[in-house]
Specification:
The protein is of the alpha+beta class and about 270 residues long. Helices cover about 30% and strands about 25% of the residues. The chain has helices at about 5-30, 35-50, 120-140, 145-160, 255-260; strands at about 55, 70-75, 80, 95-105, 105-115, 165, 170-175, 180-185, 200-205, 205-210, 215, 225, 230-235, 235-240, 245-250. Helix 1 (about 5-30) packs antiparallel against helix 2 (about 35-50), helix 1 runs parallel beside helix 5 (about 255-260) and helix 3 runs antiparallel to helix 4. The protein is globular and about 45 Å long. It starts with 6 loop residues before the first helix and ends in an 8-residue tail after the last helix. The chain binds magnesium ion (2 copies). The site of one magnesium ion has 5 residues, from loops.
Length: about 270
């Protein structure tokens, strides 16, 4: 079931998405060699609670093995769902930080991949291509297009550079739940899949690797890694499908004010 949002609902979603954006910027301030990922998680949780919201990932999944943290922090060959802890970041690491909040009954969910200090040219190219593919996907998220148009744009851009496009994890609708219909794969064919309609709210999130598209889950039940150990990158925005041009609810601007990252075009 796909829920189209009213403008007043979209306003609440914008607030939730922007809180995630500001939380990621708080984390950005502390990303440097030697910091423990668990400390980044504490910073994010405190900031979200201070802003009258709930960390949406903490406890996610329920049951015997709920996700235990506010952030998913995934380093190098970890693609997504890495659990923060006592791991210390090192110069040259790639660090995907994914954050979700619930504020006033609506969810925000977005992600950015940071470099720790200087990283290799190959890793820079991976980051640049992944973020470019995110915006190419968003460009297709307009009323009247199909879900497959988004995935096709992302896949083509990344595969022509020889990168792997993860298949097992996908973007999603978002709103009163963190994960709503429809699924938004990062691969697909033009003209295929669900028709996009104004008021649909989507989280678009390419997960791209230097090697294979194949992934596996570690024994903690959460962390997803590339099956060949190659590095991966992950960027995510929350958007509203509209006539002519999608509206991006989240922003990387607060992050890039901190990182001054000149590799990445984060329009
Ligand atoms: Mg998501
Ligand atoms: Mg996310």
């Amino acid at each position: 079931m796909i829920y189209l949002k009213s403008e007043s609902e979209i306003e609440k979603m914008r607030n939730a998405a922007q809180l995630v954006s500001r939380t990621l910027a708080e984390v950005a301030k502390e990303i440097k060699p030697g910091i423990e990922t668990g400390l980044l998680d504490v910073i994010a949780e405190d900031y979200i609670k201070k802003n009258d919201a709930r960390p949406a990932f903490k406890g996610y999944g329920g049951g015997k093995n709920p996700f235990p943290a506010t952030l998913c922090i995934s380093v190098n060959e970890e693609v997504v769902h890495g659990i923060p802890g006592n791991r210390k970041l090192k110069e040259g690491d790639l660090v995907s930080v994914d954050c979700g909040v619930e504020k006033d009954g609506y969810f925000g969910d977005h992600a950015y991949t940071f470099t720790v200090g200087e990283c290799s040219d190959e890793n820079k190219e991976l980051l640049k291509t992944t973020i470019e593919s995110l915006y190419k996907g968003i460009d297709k998220a307009v009323h009247g297009n199909k879900i497959g148009d988004i995935g096709s744009a992302i896949q083509n851009h990344c595969e022509k550079k020889g990168f792997g496009v993860v298949r097992d994890l996908v973007g999603h609708g978002i709103g009163k739940s963190m994960h709503e219909d429809p699924s938004v794969p990062n691969f697909g064919r033009d003209g295929k899949g669900e028709r996009l309609r104004s008021g649909m709210t989507l989280a678009i999130e390419p997960m791209i690797t230097l090697g294979t598209w194949k992934v596996k889950t570690l024994s903690d039940g959460w962390t997803i890694v590339t099956s060949d150990g190659s590095n991966s990158a992950h960027f995510e925005h929350d958007i509203v499908v509209r006539e002519g041009e999608a509206e991006i609810l989240s922003t990387f601007d607060y992050i890039t004010e901190i990182t001054k990252n000149e590799i990445l075009e984060t329009h």
